[in-house]
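Sequence in, structure out.
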Amino acid sequence: MKLVRSANYSSILNYVLMHVGATLCFFVKPELGAVGIALALYFITGGLGWSVGIHRGLIHRSFKTYRWVENCLALLGALSGLGGPISSSRTHFVRDFCQSNQGIADSELPRKFWRNYLRSPFFCNSWLEPATHDSISETLRQRTFFRWLEHRWVLIGVMATLLYSIGGLTYVVWGLFARVTVSANVFACFDYFCHSPKWGQQRFQLVGASCDGRNNWLVGLLTCGEGWHNNHHAMPTSQRMGVGRFEVDLGYAMICGMQWAGLVWDLMPPECALKSNALPIVINPTDSTNDGRAS
């Protein structure tokens, strides 16, 4: 089994466009409303849309919801700039396969920061040879609306138009260019910091896996819980990633809010989602409460 990559020119062009547009922040007068809407959209699209809707909902099926809610969350996730539901699922499948199995040539385990950064989905397409069946991506591809959400340039145009109609160029610069630039860099850095032994802690060791992830509190805050990545590797189908007392998981809080409103149900508790090869790391054999500070 071999991991193969090729340049993703459409995504690279989008990456460059967003970063060039973000530099306009230094030339336009900042407005409180523009900065506020950028922050709100960051957490709504990246947290509620991508982390909750696409990652935990569509990819891992951590909860059940109505079809229209799935569509709304997927739309928000696609507007985050992190990819549509189908492309996100396909990338996730390849990375998860490499990290869950040892001996794959040119695997996803990061070595150097820039090497890992430049191999992120913002720059590269990745696939396995020989091909391995990806049932989740194939299921998502059957839905017309999800296929439409893969048209990034249409979504960018729609978002730019809406923001311009609200507050002009300043809102476009902050609400689109700056926001997507921050999201892209946060998640590109997340891939390194939450898989590198130098920058995180573990609660679990995954036997037979090439990479079992790391928990990082700062990345957890910036990604609405995705930074509790060792927990996620051990319990991938759980809707809750931050399982410790001080492991803040904004994505899980959003799911709880949706459950209270009757929009989601059949949540998967962490203990029921624990993989058979995930062994808890005991720091003090006499202490049954593991706080996950092992390195």
